[in-house]
Amino acid sequence: MNDKLANLAPVARILLALMFIISGLQKISGYEGTQGYMEFMGVPGALLPIVIVLEVVAGIGLLIGFQARISAILLAGFTIVAGTLFHLVPSFGMEGMAAQNEVIHFMKNLSITGGLLLVVTFGAGAFSVDNRRSGSVVPAE
């Protein structure tokens, strides 16, 4: 891999991870509202602590590149499930712009999942705990 391009890996991890970390922390400050929204959408509100821990802990793992593949696969699975439950399924009962908006949100979830699966496939990349522990600076070709 081109060494200059390898330096983009931490940027990609940061961009992916920040969304999950910030979202998890916001769920703490808006706990009751988030729990109510989950229940309104047919998802048990009792799952909220698991969601928060997953987003924050796996998000930090992805951010620093520690167990990045595991963090990324967990977040990818979560993103597909959340996108399906909160955007795709509701879009079936809507018409017009509301349905189109939900489908766009679902497609964004698919795109995020694609980025996460690249981390699963290629690893954390440069400037990560995973590569430091293995003694590598950039992923092997």
Summarize the structure.
With 141 residues, this protein is mainly alpha-helical.
From the structure above, extract its key features.
141 residues; mainly alpha; 78% helix
Structural class from helices and strands?
Answer: mainly alpha
Number of strands: 0
Low-confidence stretches: none
Work out the radius of gyration. Answer: 17 Å
In DSSP terms (H or I, runs of 4 or more residues), the helix count works out at 7
Rough outline: globular
> Helix content range of the residues, please?
over 70%
Major β-sheet annotation: none
> Kindly state the mean pLDDT as a whole number?
92
Write down the secondary-structure element order.
HHHHHHH
* β-strand amount: under 5%
- Taking the alpha carbons of the first and last residues, their distance comes to 6 Å
Characterization of the model:
- Helix content is 78%, strand content 0%.
- The protein is mainly alpha-helical and 141 residues long.
- The model has no long low-confidence stretch (mean pLDDT 92).
